[in-house]
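[PROTEIN RECORD]
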Amino acid sequence: MSTIAGLVHDGRVYMASDSLGTKNDTVSMVLTTHKMFKKDQFLMGCVGDLRVRQIMQYLFTPPKIEDGIEIEHYMAACFIQELRLCLKENGYAQVENNVEEGINFLIGVRGRLFDVSYDYSLNEPDCGYSAVGSGWIHALDTLFVSDEKDPVQRLKEAIETAIHFDPYTGGPIHVDFV
């Protein structure tokens, strides 16, 4: 899998990710493709199936944010709905027991950080940081104890901790912000 961590600092959203790819939980290799990407005013970080990231990065067009709409309303009612349709149109709608399932990812937009769960529920952490992927708990632990540090340093340390404790997290660390 992977680990991606994000945080809000001074009106910006920062994210960091590892760069290790795994196949069938046995083969690991460092990837040249990044697990995070910017699209319009969004910063997105995806864990799990790389095909979903590719669909989100290259095929998905986020709907326009209308003036006056509250950003959480937009994310839940517009963004997520359009993303679900795009994933379905491009062959990635997973349905099991009549339940549609996607991937877990982070989205930063307009100084807000959202954690999107496998069921497409949208969560905005009150603490201002979150993490997803197989090393998420290790990254969260590090973010919790490092709130006095620079945001880039905090995120690098969070991913380094995940790399140390999680066998599915590794390789160079990438950091970006929006």
Residues 3-58+104-177 form a domain with the Glutamine Phosphoribosylpyrophosphate, subunit 1, domain 1 fold (CATH 3.60.20.10). The chain has a mean pLDDT of 92. The chain has one domain: 3-58+104-177. The first strand starts at residue 3 and ends at 9.
